Amino acid sequence: MARLTRRSQPLEALGMVGSAAVEMRSLTRHFGKFTAVDDLNLTVQTGEIFGLLGPNGAGKTTVIKILTTLLPPSSGQISISGLNLVRQSALVRRVIGYVPQALSADGSLTGYENLLIFAKLYDIPREQRKHRIADVLELMGLQAAAHRLVRQYSGGMIRKLEIAQAILHRPRVLFLDEPTVGLDPLARSQVWELVTQLQSNYGTTVVLTTHFLEEANYLCDRVLIMHQGQAIVTGTPSDLKASLGKPDATLDDVFIQYTGDPLMSGTNYHETSKLRRTTQRLG
Ligand SMILES: Nc1ncnc2c1ncn2[C@@H]1O[C@H](COP(=O)(O)OP(=O)(O)OP(=O)(O)O)[C@@H](O)[C@H]1O
């Protein structure tokens, strides 16, 4: 009888049915003496769109890098879809998708060629590749541009291609790091629409980082407000606003109330140049 190897195990067999998409207990990450993430506790339920909200430097990217197995935690217990992040990292990588802030598509290749590389990386069987690629191209509305070089794409098209790459293997949990930084308002709302579709049509859990209040408000079922590496408060955007007890409260008011700072303060030289680089890259 053929032995079922980890590789050949169907995706549905991985993890535990009914477990939370993300479970973290006392997650801490130090860089030398500096604590970037400090004793974070969080549960993201399956099917949620969950936002890590905070200013630059709050620790959001560090959390995402840990959850996507790119950076080891200093301490804490974390599971993704019931899989232990540290002990079962190879399996975790099979059930997640990740769109980083940095460019993950090759401009010198066509959209189709980029997707083919990801299909091979994800071990999608050869006979299924064409069909899977056609599916994600259609979902992202990129069919007509599939055979054009990515360097000719607009910023919004590149971001859609990057999301297409990240969902090719039908991940259960999709991590998006600042998905709309550098995009114009039209491209931004298209990305929001796609993320909502992934949730409603495929039940995908989405964990995203953002420092745009409008994005958190529009997209997220729940948010965690982070400040200086710490979890400040978790809730639905409307509950958090209602908790202030004043009509017309905004998420910015919530942020000020809980942290003492406005969300958009603290933009320094490093952050400004990073934002400009992203904007330039995405056209
Ligand atoms: N490899 C590293 N070495 C040292 N310090 C780091 C490293 N990575 C991140 N940090 C620091 O940890 C803190 C949190 O950074 P992180 O990138 O997680 O913040 P963020 O909330 O995602 O902000 P941004 O949107 O700018 O990425 C920052 O002060 C950052 O300088």
TrEMBL record:
Keywords from the named record: ATP-binding, Nucleotide-binding
Pfam families registered for this protein in UniProt: ABC_tran (PF00005)
Signal peptide (UniProt feature, chain positions): none
Gene Ontology molecular function, alphabetical: ATP binding; ATP hydrolysis activity
All copies of domain ABC transporter, residue ranges: 22-253
Highest taxon above the source species: Bacteria
Family annotation (PANTHER family): LINEARMYCIN RESISTANCE ATP-BINDING PROTEIN LNRL (PTHR43582:SF2)
Protein name as it appears in the record: ATP-binding cassette domain-containing protein
